[in-house]
Design brief:
alpha/beta, 6-stranded antiparallel β-barrel, about 20% helix, Thrombin, subunit H, 6 helices
Length: about 350
């Protein structure tokens, strides 16, 4: 299976640079994964496709202002750090730019010394383990000094930080938003619950996988970076009951899907647990957890296009993308939505 098989041509003007004024006003392409039939709606119409007893699973991770700009001690060279993963004891896995200037022992000052970071280990692909030193509450200082880590294809400045958060974001730790959830409003979620749909959270802190393209020719040679996930006992019990009763489980986003599939692959059941996952889902994978998926439109040749192709079939997905392009759908993080039913 070749990475090239998941390529498609996208006109640059369809890459959404800013969020819509109303979250649930985005377009919604509904794709039948069995027949390939396509329907066009607006996102608030998702209500029509959800029924009493269905379980809608959301990722309640919260994006941290994870992009920091600082100065190296002595040389004053400007260094950018993108904080990817909290490994404990104030040591974070970070993507450094320019990485060649950050060696073991390099010390960087942020905000005039409000945060000091020392490189304690050099890893591949520009990754560095950085030990942070500060006085006070780390996330409060980070909120003051850091910027929202928007993907590199977004060139516009984000006016409101909360538009790169879901309305149900709760657990701090992500380097990127679980963007399929950006379309939900509190009002729409309430209507979904009023219809008898059960909404439950899981947590997956989005890391480097979101920023890394597939660079290998053979899909199976690609290595995913691990990300931290967590499932509560309450969520596990609700999902287990739904599985026993053959009620549909709908994943909101690829991060939610990867978490649910990881847990089912590991334990063959839903259970209270936490850990690290590097699951890579591509065509041939047999889904064990979800039945349907709400997702955005993903980058060409990305692991996320491969995941949705595994669920709906590559031909159906690429055909749906072709039609979305023809109908001027907006793509990627701030773009429109797809429901794979």
């Amino acid at each position: 299976m070749k990475t090239e098989d998941f390529d498609y041509e996208l006109p640059e003007h369809l890459i959404a640079q800013t969020p819509l004024q109303r979250r649930d006003a985005s377009k919604l392409l509904v794709l039948d994964k069995e027949t390939g039939k396509i329907e066009h709606h607006v996102f608030s119409d998702i209500l029509e496709y959800l029924n009493e007893g269905d379980v809608l699973v959301v990722n309640d991770t919260k994006v941290i202002p994870a992009r920091l700009y600082g100065e190296k001690f002595v040389t004053h060279a400007i260094i950018e750090l993108l904080m990817l993963k909290d490994t404990g004891n104030d040591i974070w896995e970070c993507l450094a730019k320019p990485a060649k200037r950050v060696k073991k022992g390099t010390v960087i000052s942020f905000g005039g010394g409000k945060i000091i970071a020392e490189c304690v280990e050099e890893k591949e692909e520009g990754i560095r383990l950085m030990k942070f030193f500060y006085q006070g509450i780390f996330y409060e200082i980070l909120d003051e000094l850091g910027e929202m880590p928007l993907p590199p294809y977004i060139h516009e400045k984000l006016e409101e930080k909360d538009r790169y958060q879901t309305v149900y974001a709760k657990n701090l730790g992500s380097a990127a938003a679980p963007t399929a959830g950006l379309h939900f409003t509190e009002d729409l979620l309430q209507k979904i619950k009023d219809k008898g749909v059960i909404v439950v959270p899981i947590t997956l802190h989005v890391g480097l996988g979101t920023f890394r393209p597939v660079s290998v020719e053979d899909v199976k040679s690609h290595k995913m970076h691990s990300e931290f996930y967590e499932m509560s006992k309450e969520t596990a019990n609700i999902l287990s009951k739904a599985k026993r009763e053959n009620r549909p489980i709908i994943g909101v986003g690829t991060t939610t899907t990867r978490t649910l599939e990881s847990i089912m692959s590991l334990y063959n059941e839903f259970k209270e647990c936490s850990g690290w996952t590097d699951i890579f889902i591509y065509p041939g994978y047999q889904f064990k957890a979800i039945d349907h998926l709400i997702t955005n439109f993903h980058l060409p040749k990305s692991t996320l296009v491969m995941l949705v192709s595994a669920l709906a079939g590559k031909e159906h997905i690429l055909n749906a993308y072709k039609e979305a392009i023809e109908k001027e759908y907006r793509f990627f993080s701030f773009g429109d939505s797809m429901f794979i039913k």
